[in-house]
Specification:
This protein is an alpha+beta fold. Helices cover about 35% and strands about 40% of the residues. It has helices at about 15-30, 75-95, and strands spanning about 1-10, 30-35, 40-45, 55-60, 65-70. The relative contact order is 0.29.
Length: about 100
Amino acid sequence: MAKIQKTQSYAGKSAGDVYQAILKAVPLAGLQVWKRRDIAWLVMVRSGSGSEAIDGNVSARPGTQVTVSLASQGLSEADLLARSELVFAEIGKLVG
């Protein structure tokens, strides 16, 4: 099982604004919003099925840090890192 966790900062943006961008960016990066925990700025995500299934979460934290954590039974860490980079790229486009 491959797992990754990556954090990136978005200076000058509020955590609430970044969280709203996360909600829009996740589907653009090919992941499904499975559950939301708005009070915690947390989005649980998933994608695919079988050996290509991805489960994880994307969260905003005070200080405008975003953490993407992904896991998969059949995909490699490199695949998961690539997907996390897509999430970060889409967030970056949305928050400017």
